[in-house]
Amino acid sequence: MTEEEKCDGEEGVLCDWCGEEEAVGVFFVPGRGVVGLCPRCRVFLVAVLVDIA
Q: I want to staple 38 with a disulfide (CB 3.0 to 4.6 A). Which of 9, 16, 21, 48 is the partner?
């Protein structure tokens, strides 16, 4: 989303995990269902899932 789009009053969807940053995509998280995640939470979640597997 560009700065121009944000200025038009259109808000981005916040991350469902941390609630602080704009979500960049929707992902399936085992035990949590489908959630929108920001880049930081997405990387953290992938690291946790790789460690578990």
A: 21
Residue (of 32, 33, 11) closest to 22 by Cα position: 11
Q: Are 45 and 27 in contact (CB under 8 A)?
A: yes
- Domain assignment present for residue 6? The answer is no
pTM of the model: 0.59
Q: Is 21 a member of any domain?
A: yes
In 3D, which of 10, 8, 9, 52 has the Cα closest to residue 29?
52
Split into its structural domains, the chain has a count of: 1
Instruction: Give residue-wise pLDDT tens across range 10-46.
Output: 568 899 989 998 999 888 877 878 989 899 988 887 6
Contact 14, 20 (CB under 8 A): yes
